[in-house]
């Protein structure tokens, strides 16, 4: 569940004088600012509005925005809405930007690694594959599986094919992550699949190979 919504933060300023309160004619006011912001998982993400006002120290009468002299409104905004107060209100946006940059970096790194894995395959490499692009008798609803390299010889890679097929790639990724795909019993023992190493790159580009995991 995603928790989001709007909240507000009040910033208290200094006491100003020289303005008559329309309610009690007192001339002392406390300045304040109200920052409304959108939050995601309670993390301030984006400022939606900034309001300034003054409160009479005697009768608590409030005057905000257009009720204030323009020069005073600008002075209060400058004094209260400093970088120290405003920047934390964009924390969520900064976090999201960092996650996007990290995601792009990770994707590029994985892509570079997979190119190396294809050009220099190793025994026990795990391939998440689209079975419909490799075998003719595959159920199109459960088209994802895992193939594991068992031997490399004479320009060919020998693969075992998983007994299990998935309707989503996430199922295959989970079995790799949990170690299930490292078990011998996970693979069909009726025969191996032999593929020329120089054809692996073409299979990746055609979508037959989705991703490669090299076990450390």
UniProtKB/TrEMBL annotation:
The chain crosses the membrane at residues 86-105. It comes from the Bacteria. The keyword Transmembrane applies. The keyword Membrane applies. Keywords: Membrane, Transmembrane, Transmembrane helix. This is Zinc-ribbon 15 domain-containing protein. It comes from Terasakiispira papahanaumokuakeensis.
